[in-house]
Every structure is written in C-alpha cells, then in structure tokens.
Amino acid sequence: MNYIDLRSDTFTVPTPPMLEAMCKAVVGDDVWGEDPTVIELQEFAAGLLGKEAALFVPSGTMANQIGVAINTKTGDEIIVDADAHIFYYEAGGPSIISRVQCRSIKTSDGIIPESSIIGAIRGLDVHFPRTSLICLENTHNRHGGTIIPLDYIQGIRKIADEHNIAMHCDGARLWNSCIAAGVSPAEYAAPFDTVSVCLSKGLGAPIGSLITGTKEKIASALRWRKVLGGGMRQVGIIAAAGLYALQNNYSLLVQDHENAKKFAEYIAESEFISIDLNNVQTNIVLFHIPETIGIDKFASVCLEKGLKIAGMGGSTVRAVFYYQIS
Ligand SMILES: *Cc1c(COP(=O)(O)O)cnc(C)c1O
User: What pTM value is reported for the model?
Assistant: First the structure.
C-alpha cells in the first residue's frame, strides 16, 4: 500500500536532482577541514543567516546541544520554554553534556512572556546558579509550527543584553518562519548569538544540520562536535544534498504551507475534530480528536485508509506537510 505519511517532515526523501548533486560532490576529509563541499555549504549557510561562520553537524539535536555548550559554563542555568525541543526532546542533553540546569517555563503558545523571562533571570547571589542563556524555538514544533514574531525576539534581546545573557535559536524550521512571515533568515538570526538550522526537515535533505555564530563561537563548536563524535570524513556527499536543498527547495516551502492550510480547513468541517485555524501558520497542523476515541484507535483507522499521522500526547494529533506530499 502507498501511504500518505504526515507524521513528520523528516520523512522527506532526496529527489533525483538532489541525488545527482550528491553523486557529483567533490569531497575531502572534513575532520581535516578539507572537504570543499562542506566548506561551500558552511559558507553559504553563514551568508544566508548573516553570521560569520557555520558548522555542519549530523543532527539538529547535536546543533542545539553544541549551542548550549558554547554559550554556558558548568552549573549555569538556561531559560527555555517547557515545550522546547531542547528541553522536551533531547534526552536531558543540557544536564549531561553542558552540565547546566534548565529553567523551563510553561507557556500557552511557546512564546515566553517578557515578564516571565525577567522573573526567571537570577540575581547575583551565592545561592543561585548563573543565568547564561535564553533559548527560543522558531517555528515552534510542539505548539504547531507557529511563528515567533521578530519584534518579540528583539525585545528579549534587549533584556538579555541588560543581563549579559546569550541567546540561542533552535531554528530547525526557521526557514518556514521566514517564508511565512516574510522575514529573511539573516533578520531572524540577528538577535541571536547562535542559531541552529535543520536541512533534513521540510527542505528535503536526508541528513544534516548547521550551527552558526561568530568565528570564535564556531571554533568552540568544532571542538564540541569532536567531543560528541560528530566529526565526519568525506561528508561532502551529504553536504551536497543540504546545499542543493537550500538553493532549490527553500522557496518551495510555501507550497507546504498552502497544503497544510487546505488540509486544516477541510478537517475543520468535521464535527468531531477541534482545531484552531489561527494556529496553522506553516507546515504543521495540530488538531484534537474526542478523548473517547483515543489516539491509538484514530491512528489505526487512518492507517487502514492509507494515512499515517502521529499523536502528540493526549488527544492531540499532528500532521506535517513537506516536499513529497502533493
Ligand atoms: C527535529 C527538531 C530538532 C532536532 O533535529 P534532529 O535532526 O532530529 O536531531 C530540533 N529542534 C526542533 C524544533 C525540531 O523539530
């Protein structure tokens, strides 16, 4: 059976021209800094995001964990919303790798109010950990691919500056925000010290993420990538897919957003599905089914009809749109 798989935009597969770019990639040993395709991708991504440097890493999780590591010291505290990938889905990485603790703040929409951030920042006191980093996620995955407004981020930057705190953006789907909000990647990245981005979500590359920042931060990121075992060799084969994705698939994300909206409007007509259409801003659709049905039953009925969807906890269902979904 041919399934329509809406579980995640990580189910994208490389297209024939992307595979061709991979086959033709000029490669070298990237641990020695000698893979020309990786260098090209890093320079291209740094340029796109308006940062001095970028580092290619195997996954978004590693990019985020390196982002935490290079902006903190052991024993620090980082401010993060309770549904952020860094806190919710990265297996406790901040406490294992950077040995920092997370001050997680529950929000209704993934946007931590300024007052909550100010309230969470620690003063100078021997009893307290040092607050050294604020992490924001754009788009926000667990809140349904929602866009974080640029003026909000700029406001948080002012607060961070007043307290000498760094900022990291989990931009796994920053591209979707840029397309939907009409904000350039560089504008969105500017308020942050470091930004991580994924090539393996809606952009359609099979593997790969990047962390970007100043030359100094990325030099430190390179060390952390080595520590974490993320140094790869002739990885230009994969970098070529990422470069192809950024150069060719980026503008196609608009189609995924349209498809998500159409799907959302269609299912909203069903009397037993509840959905907030205002929340459908990019390529992710969250909706709720009656608790009496339950996600397992719902998913198995969908599967019988050829549709794969994912539960997001409770009676919340997620459908994600990407290149291979027409
Ligand atoms: C997917 C994702 C990541 C992590 O990427 P992996 O490559 O799966 O490790 C990080 N943050 C967000 C918001 C994501 O959706």
Answer: 0.97
